[in-house]
Amino acid sequence: MSGSTEIDPRMMARCRELAELAERAGNHAVGSLVAVGGEILAEAGEETPAGPVAFAHAELLAVQRAVRATGERHLPEATLYSTHEPCFMCSYAIRVARIGRVVLGTAVGEIGGVSSRYPILTAADVAAWGPPPAIDWQKPPSDPDGPRRLHR
Questions:
Q1: How many C-beta atoms surround the C-beta of residue 107 within 10 A?
Q2: Among all residues, which ones are annotated catalytic?
Q3: Model-level pTM?
């Protein structure tokens, strides 16, 4: 389940649209979706900090909605797409849902589930989580305003 697919650019473009909507609503510019093949199961834009829940991150919301939509606790055939690297909390949800592949845009550094010193998304030593998902980084399109730092 590793490697870029022909639908990745389309899915990442949708994530960027969701991120723009989130930003317009006063939230962090993060968008995420969960798909199987070309079918989107669930999607979400970040709902923090303007929303009432401090942990309403786009990835967490997309995973929750995908699990509800399918009625399945585990989604090994699914791919989660996100404009940003998931934080520890979102990475935990991805692992518990056993999502098989994760496609990421921008790294978030010290709280990232892949690039930090606590790589929850790639940890292979927690048996209860099953195997880690395949990770594919997608370079975001150039931003004329320069890169935006994500502060969650």
A1: 13
A2: 59
A3: 0.90
Report d(CA 82, CA 30) in Å as an integer. 7
Q: Is residue 44 very low, low, confident or very high in pLDDT (cuts 50, 70, 90)?
A: very high
30 close to 82: Cβ distance less than 8 angstroms = yes
- What does the pLDDT look like over 57-113, one tens digit per residue? 999 999 999 999 999 999 999 999 999 999 999 999 999 999 999 999 999 989 999
Element of type H or E holding 94: helix 88-96
Alpha carbon distance 82, 19 (integer Å): 9
Q: For residue 81, give every residue at least 6 positions away whose Cβ sits within 8 Å of its Cβ, in sequence order, or none.
A: 8, 11, 12, 14, 15, 32, 33, 34, 35, 102, 103
